[in-house]
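Dig into what follows:
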Amino acid sequence: MNHSPAEIIAQYLISKGKVIQPGESGTWPIYVGYLPDAPESRVDPDVVASMDSESLKDGRVMGGDPLFHRGVQILLRGKDYNEGYVKAEDLANTLASARRSRVRIGDDAYRIDNVTQTTDVVRLGLEEGTKRRWTFSVNFLATLQEV
């Protein structure tokens, strides 16, 4: 694959209108691999990050290729506790419905066969140093294919 699972999942959430590309007008921009860190005046307080996490090797197909369920973590930072929690739940529900969904990134195409949520929405508390932004996390395993 030419793109990480985190990139593929981020593009899927963008295609469903749940998040936006960084720099676009609107709310809940999604970053791949990190949450932006800067003085509060320069960073949107409501942001999402799609991060690669631990995958699960789950046997082999008849041809001998190993099967991997790719680990993805969604991190979310919100100015309001309830809005952040509800957004995390919304993203989890959106990913739960991703079955045989196609995603295009540039010239590459991928199929999301299945996404399994492996944790509840985890409330991580107030972001260190700010006491104003709440953080949440949800973990998933995704079955992805290049098409």
